[in-house]
Amino acid sequence: MSRDKILAKLPRMSAACLRANGLTQPPAVDMSHDPHDVAPAKPTLRQKRGPKLNKTEAAFEQHLRAKFPAKIICTQGVTLTLGNGVRYTPDFSTWAQLGDTFPAFFEVKGFMRDDAAVKLKVAAAMYPQFIFFLVHRDKSAPSGWRIEEVLP
Asked: What is the domain range of residue 68?
């Protein structure tokens, strides 16, 4: 592209704009390099996909896989819509035989915040065909876990 074509595409500064910036003429345009000669951008780093488990969740996953070795266990693989843009994703879901053949959802908590408790109770009430469990680490329990069923 020629110098004149490039200069023709640049915006023009009005006389009032020049005076406001303390200039008497427009600034010179450096034409010593090709404006289209740009170095390629560095590759972007992407975060690893998949569930990110904390230590308590990872320990319970090992316990769950040991208890149900041949069953399907999904880690944060199901998201339930509760309404008005609110979603609930349980930590683990399994289709193991737990008295029934319905899917069971496990929520592992070290401590429970109010919003998490409300989402869990609402999900249990909205989806009564599923079984919901709240799991806490408990050193006094034989398995090391206190597993409570969340009733609708």
From this structure: 55-150
